[in-house]
Amino acid sequence: MSLAKGLVIAAPRSGSGKTLVTLGLLAALRRRGVIVAPAKTGPDYIDPAFLTRAALREAVNLDPWSMSPARLKHLASVQATGAELLLVEGVMGLFDAAADGFGSTADLAELLDLPVIFVVDADRQSQSVAPLVAGFANWRVGVRVAGVILNRIASMKHERMLVEALAATGIPCLGAIPRNPALAVPERHLGLVLPGEVTAFETFLDTAAEMVGDYVDLDGLRALAAPLPEATEPAPSLPPLGQRIAIAQDAAFAFLYPHLLDGWRAMGAELSFFSPLANEAPAADSDAVFLPGGYPELHGATLSAADIFKTGLVAARDRNALIYGECGGFMVLGEALVDKAGQSHAMAGLLPVTTRIDRPKRTLGYRRLVHAGALPWPGQLHGHEFHYSSAKQSRLTPLFAATDATGQALPPMGAVIGRVMGSYAHVIDAA
Which domains does the chain possess? Predict the structure, then answer.
C-alpha cells in the first residue's frame, strides 16, 4: 500500500524524553517539508493527541499486546500511506511489557522490522552511557538499535565524553540535546495533560522543533529508516455499535481510538459527534450512543447541569438505542460523581452507580474481557483499564467477566440494564 519507511523512538525507561524528542522530530521534519505519519505504541490516548498536533496528521495506536500481528501491519501500512516516514513513539522502556511479558515496544519494532532510535537521558551520567546502550542493543536478536539521541546534556564537555564513550558501541550518536526547562510538559493524575490545556502549546512545540532541528542529525536519522513490511488483511474490526452512532467528544470525553472509528466507517456506520459539556444531546435518530473515556471528574458541575444532554440520553434509552460508556463515560451513566474535593454531582442516572475520585487509588493494566450481552462484538475482547476513581454499585448484571494479562481472575466489571451498559474497561480489539 505504501512505500514509506519507518522508525521506532524508544528509551531505557519512562521519563527519558522520548515524547519530547518524538514531538520535536515530527515538528522539525514537518518544517523541512517531510510528510511524517505519527503512531504510538500501546494503549495511550494522551500522547497521540500531542503527536497529532505536532505532525498535523492524526496519530494511531499500535498495541502489540491487544492487536494481532496482521492488525498491526495493516494499521501501520494504512497510517503511512501518503507519508514519507512513519514515526512510532514507544511506551515505557524498550523491553517493558505487560505482566505476561508481551506487548513491549521491542515486540512492535521486531514485528514491523523497524530500527530503533534510542533516547537516553544523560543527566548525571558520562561514560556509563556506553554499557547502557550496548546492553539494550545486544539484549535481543531481531531488535535493532540503529542510533542514539542523548537528552539533557549539561555542557559541551559532557557531550564530548558521552560521544567518545558511545563510539565503542558502533552505534551512531545522532545528536545531543541540552537541558531546557522550557520543554517540561505539565502532568496530572492520568499522565500528561491534553495539548489544548498546555499554555502556549505552539510555543512549546516551536521550541522542541528548534532544539531537535539544531542538535539532531535529521538527515542521518532519516537514512536509518527501514521499509514497512507488506501488510496482510486482518480480521474485520470490531463491528459498529449501531448503524447511526452518536459519539460524545469534548474535553470530558476525549479518549477515542481512531482505528475503531475508521473501522466503523468502513463497515458503513454513520458517525455523528456531540458535546455534553456544551449541553448537546445525541442525534435524535441515533440507534447507538457511545460515551468514551476522558476527564468527567474535572467537569462535574457542568455535566450535572447539562439537562439537554441528560434528557437526550434518556430519550435514546427509551427508543431502545444501545448506550455504551467506557471509563469516564461509565461514570457519567451513573447516578452521581464525587469529585476530588468531595463534591457530589448528579449524573445521567441510567445505571445505579456512584463513582468517586476523592479517595484516589490507581487501577491499571491490560484486561481480557468476556461478555454475553447486547454489545455487537465478539464474546472475547482485549482492552485496558487506567483510572483513579472507584465505583460503588447496587447488585447488577456486570458487563464483563475479566482477567488481567496473565489470566488472573478479576472482579466482574461494569453494569448492564437492558441496552444501557458500561465499565471502566477501554476496549481495543477482539481477543
Answer: 5-227 (3.40.50.300), 244-430 (3.40.50.880)
342, HSE (Cβ side, Cα atoms, 13 Å): 0
DSSP H/E element including 56:
none
Torsion angle (degrees, nearest 10) of CA 234, 260, 417, 288: -120
Tell the residue number behind the cell numbers 523512538, with chain if given. 9
Please compute Rg for the chain using Cα positions: 22
Nearest to 423 by CA among 258, 250, 237, 291: 291
- Distance between CA atoms of residues 80 and 36, nearest Å: 8
Nearest to 324 by CA among 394, 378, 391, 248: 248
**What is the rounded CA–CA span in Å between residue 350 and residue 352?**
7
**Backbone phi and psi for residue 119, each to the nearest 5 degrees, phi listed first:** -95, 120
| Residue 242 grid cell | 449501531
Q: Which residues have a catalytic role annotated? A: 327
CA nearest to 178, candidates 215, 221, 220: 215
* Whether pLDDT at 154 is above 90: yes
CA-based nearest residue to 326, from 413, 262, 228, 394? 413
Q: What is the pLDDT of residues 305-326, one digit of tens each?
A: 999 999 999 999 999 999 999 9
Predicted pLDDT of residue 197: 61
What is d(CA 416, CA 374) in angstroms, rounded to the nearest whole number? 9
CA nearest 393: which of 413, 375, 409, 374?
413
Q: Which range (151-160, 218-227, 258-267, 360-369) has the least confidence?
A: 360-369
Per-residue confidence band for 394, with pLDDT thresholds at 50, 70 and 90: low
What was the pLDDT predicted at 346?
Answer: 98
Model confidence at 284: pLDDT above 80: yes
Give the pTM: 0.93
Name the residue with cell 513490511.
229
DSSP 36: E
CA distances from 83 to 4, 23, 190, 229 (A): 6, 17, 31, 15
pLDDT at 2: 45
Residues 6+ apart with CB under 8 A from 138: none
